[in-house]
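User: Structure tokens for both sequences below?

Assistant:
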Amino acid sequence: MYAKINDKYEITSDSHCFMLNRLSEAGKDAKEPGKKVSTTIGYYSSIDGLFRALPDRVLMKSEATNLQEAIKEVREIGDRAKKMLGALK
């Protein structure tokens, strides 16, 4: 399974689990600067578990500078997750 949540996160899976990945670009000192990089930040036994953990993961990695920005980011990702989960059921 592959599902892009937004420009920062995607979901992948294998035969054992679902993975939440953070998307970024390789830094200027990397072998291939600017290359898109996917880093796994969580492993989940169910898609429901991944979606329940998603807001917390987003908040921990947020670049928000105030509470309103953080709340907005978590709400947006939560709304997107609900739509994606609804489509899967």
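Moving on to the next sequence.
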Amino acid sequence: MNFEKILIVGCTHGNEWTGEALIQNYANEIQESFPDLPIEFSIANPKARELNKRYIDEDLNRVFKNIDANIESHERTLAKEFLKRIKDSKTLIIDIHSSTSNLGNTLIITQEDGFNFEVAKQVSQVSDAKVIYSPDIEKKYLVSQSTYGLMIEIGPVDHNTNQEKAISDCLLLTKEILKNVRQVDKDVHGKIKLYVERKDILYPKTQGTKLNPIFDRSDFKKYHNSCQAFLNESTNEMIQIDYEGEFFPIFIGEASYLENGLAFTVCEEIEIEY
């Protein structure tokens, strides 16, 4: 498919450094490897990066859903500038993130389009990346501001750190995405197996409750009907989470989600046609 812009974005969250490291160390290599592609790079929230914070006023990766609200914030200003940058251009967005959870290498699709599904399938077949579908009807995510886009999310990576393997894996996935840009047609059809986000699980409000150490770090492990997800340290009792059928937890214990009380997200593995 032909694009007017291919935008590779790092530091949408200022405490996730992998994308910035990719851009600083490998931008020239990426452009030289794909001289026929209109590749641009962006550090999305440089002030948050400078301060080693996820955001300044509010999460840049959630603010787009009500961008027109009469609210002033650092991230809303950035979001409006980003929208101007891609306005009236057919843009592919590759937004790079890291997670403190034991996620491994993943590609996240937020917009239902055959191009996104086909590229993710092709990349997953030549890498260890799992594909997550996180439908974003509200278009709150940065990557959702174009029909065409993928998030790269790699974990575990601690906040405010660079890990060589994560950067190397990110480079591999980015190049594989770019290899498929010209090869995948806009009207492509096929099937893909992926992990669809279904439900967020919050931490219990019972004092002294934490993630069960046996459950923690078990991202993408298959469970049936229930899991012993939490442990009450006061009583040493495990707390069960029920979910009908087969499911896979992801983003278990993600540090950034603590402020919202989110412990993990439940996914189902399904095959979809596009």
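User: Anything stand out in the second?

Assistant: The first strand starts at residue 5 and ends at 10.
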